[in-house]
Design a protein that fits this description.
The protein is α+β, with helices and mostly antiparallel strands. It has one domain: 2,3-Dihydroxybiphenyl 1,2-Dioxygenase, domain 1 (Roll). It contains two helices and nine strands; from the N terminus they run βαβββββαβββ. Strands 1, 2, 3, 4, 5, 6, 7, 8 and 9 form a nine-stranded mixed beta sheet that branches. The two termini are 18 Å apart.
């Protein structure tokens, strides 16, 4: 199975200030700010060929929320992870019911996103 680190998602107190920081110091290019399913704003900062940083608005938390990988077969990954005893905390499916994303807890309690390429 192939895995590629795609992004690291961090909570930030002020998304606009965080965008300015990554633009100024890393020449980051932000995507448009969108609203997540839970109502928070988020965007991705693209920095010169590195995995993206996903900035997520949070009134009370700061720090790493999750880190995300892409893989070529999410269904197989989910099966393999279940067989090996991984804690899958959430699954996302497209309108046809096809599994597109799983969220797994690592040994430190951090969430890891594994999804199909977009």
């Amino acid at each position: 199975m192939n895995y590629q680190l795609e992004h690291v998602a961090i909570y930030c107190k002020d998304i606009n200030e965080s965008i300015k920081f990554y633009e100024k110091f890393f020449a980051g290019q932000p995507t448009a700010i969108r609203k997540g399913a839970a109502g928070y704003g988020f965007c991705f900062m693209k920095i010169a060929g590195s995995p993206s940083i996903q900035l997520m608005e949070s009134a009370g938390e700061v720090g790493v929320h999750h880190y995300g990988f892409v893989t070529d077969d999410v269904e197989q990954v989910a099966k393999d992870f279940r067989e090996k005893g991984a804690q899958i905390v959430r699954e996302n499916r497209d309108p046809s019911g096809k599994l597109t994303t799983i969220f797994v807890k690592d040994p430190n309690g951090l969430e890891m996103e594994i999804r199909s390429p977009r």
